[in-house]
Amino acid sequence: MSAVTLDEPATPARADRGRRTPSDALVAGTSHTMLILWSVIVIVPFCWVLLSSFKTSKEILSSPFSLPAEWSFDNYVSAWTKAGIGTYFFNTVIVVGTALVLVMLLGAMCAYVLARFEFFGRNFIYYSMLGGLTFPVFLVIVPLFFVLQGFGLLNTLPGLILTYVAYALPFTVFFLYAFFKTLPDDVYEAAMMDGAGEWRTFFRIMLPMAAPGMAGVAIFNFLGLWNQFLLPVALNTDRKNYVLTQGMASFSSQAGYNVDFGALFAGVVLTVLPVLVVYLIFQRRIAGTVSTGTFR
Questions:
Q1: Are 173 and 111 in contact (CB under 8 A)?
Q2: Are residues 39 and 106 in the same domain?
Q3: How far apart are alpha carbons 179 and 292 in whole angstroms?
């Protein structure tokens, strides 16, 4: 037997592959510089708002970039109680939470049927859903207003929930369609041979297999619905049903020139914090979901 040499000389292809050219260094340096600048643009304003939420209005106007003289949560208490941020927060949780559950359930069922079954009009329904993604939302404000008014749901939380569901459904179906399309047929056929019906197969087998896609779409929908402003402003003018975006806009404008900037910045932090926490917790799931849906 001939001896096997472990240390083989590097071939030209391998040597070129590990060598870094000046153009590669330029691209890497430029991208890192842009990422650093973008991080500064995003992080610095948020840190300034966070520090300002512990200051009084006098401190903010006199020394906007200094540390607070006293670290107190009085601004948060004032924003939560006096400015009504607490009520708006709970309204938002109810609306977004209920809409998220409904849109994920209906979107998953619709995407599953469109992806796994052949029937007349399937392509028409699917492309109609895609058309909903391209339709600007501000063009449907007037029809939505009269539809909700006709059903007696204008300026109500249920009406806003249904509007959010309709708003997020096309994106949910479009995103989950690819996941259900790529699920193996063998698992579905085995479940049917074991006597499982369509409903049981969907909820017990196929839906758990699409859990990564479900999680990613749920996060995207949460971020979009939590920050929604145009729909509630146009369709929810009853003050007791305000959501956070409406409440913050009203809080910042109702005081005129006598704005409590400390409480205002505290309200901004309370509005942004849930979205930031959700993103930090699930950012890996978001990246994994996008890459999985892209390369399948």
A1: yes
A2: no
A3: 9
Q: Residue 11: inside a domain, yes or no?
A: no
What distance in Å separates the CA atoms of residue 40 and residue 136, rounded to the nearest whole number? 32
The position carrying tokens 């205002």 is 264
How many domains are there within the chain? 2
- Distances 218 to 108, 114, 168, 271 between C-alpha atoms, Å: 11, 19, 10, 19
In the predicted model, is pLDDT for residue 84 greater than 50? yes
Angle between helices 244-254 and 85-116 (to 10 degrees): 150
Residue 264 in contact with residue 252, Cβ under 8 Å?
A: yes
Say what the pTM is. 0.82
Q: Confirm if 201 and 277 have CB atoms less than 8 A apart.
A: no
Query: What's 239's DSSP letter?
Result: G
The domain of 270 spans 82-294
Position 236 pLDDT exceeds 70: yes
| Residue 156 falls in which region: left (phi positive, over 0), alpha (psi -120 to 50) or beta | beta
Task: State percent of the chain over pLDDT 90.
Answer: 39
